[in-house]
DNA sequence: TTACACATGTAAAAGGTTACATGATTCG
DNA sequence: CGAATCATGTAACCTTTTACATGTGTAA
């Protein structure tokens, strides 16, 4: 149910094709929603079928033609109605944390390596989000004012990544102590 | 794929029925995984069918009988093999943040009410996690030492909730300023 | 006597992932 | 010459949610 409103929200800001949308998901809303291109295309067809989107075929040269979708009045209505309704809480499902939970089955050195890998991914993520944030603050003041609330999820994304990184760094230190202990004991 | 290993991890600590498992998910791993009872029963049947779980019917009086599942040697092997493999990164999908992202469609006062509702849910969650954390530190020292790594996801859960609450409080303050501005201007 | 906790399931629908399929252009 | 980007799609599969279904014991 939520995917369609993520799509409508993005097309409400600016019309685009399935391909555009997929990239915009990755670039701008990836910290709170993700979807594959197949999901986009399916959702766009459905929304178009229900009269919530208009579709204009745009001929490009040097590139494949694309279908540019934009909200109809009904689409805007549906989005506004949805925004006013209470949203469900996030459901967290993190495979890596299951792994940590069952971590006693793994030698500390191997656990450490896995953690290190995830840590560097999270650092990359944080850097991406901070670049996005910087881009926002380079926009004209009136745009910043107009879009301030849309910008809030990114701020949460940044803080969440920082929290993750702090947690992982502490865990890493503890694993190192564990490994050192083993070496001394063995 | 991950649900089955969450189930195996829990049954590895202590055998139990589908019903038990559902409650243990809610009580002990809810900060990184959730599943309904239907998912449990289906997964238990599958795991049993694949020879990864043993099943013993336990007759109870005053209560319906229950099927108690425990890991077989193959089950333990599968869990160990899985733990050693790299885990996929978490995919975040938070409906409320879509709502915030499209928040300009909503009057600030209404946005504020929604945020307040989510905020109090997150405060409850944090209280639950902190109670769980306190319970952990009341266990005997040897158990704390043995289970320390399984306890780490909870620490992340606590920090993540605190981060969320801080973010929401700042947003709340900003919305209040916005509402005050409107009142003064109107 | 009503509601909640215990206990286990089936079935259908919705949502999401993975693999396959095509074909042009651009960059190294 | 090979890889990446642009652009759209089908099909099969897996996972998750929601609704339905049943029945006992206990506490307010």
UniProtKB/TrEMBL annotation, chains A, B:
Origin: domain of life: Bacteria
Recorded hits in InterPro entries, A to Z, give: Tscrpt_reg_PadR_C, Tscrpt_reg_PadR_N, WH-like_DNA-bd_sf, WH_DNA-bd_sf
> One matching Pfam family, short form?
PadR
The organism encoding this protein is: Microbulbifer harenosus
Xref: PANTHER family: TRANSCRIPTIONAL REGULATOR YQJI, TRANSCRIPTIONAL REGULATORY PROTEIN
> Which residue stretches, if any, does this entry annotate as coiled coil?
112-139
Protein name, entry field: PadR family transcriptional regulator
Every Transcription regulator PadR C-terminal domain range = 92-176
Ordered alphabetically, the record's keywords are:
Coiled coil
Give start and end of each Transcription regulator PadR N-terminal domain.
7-80
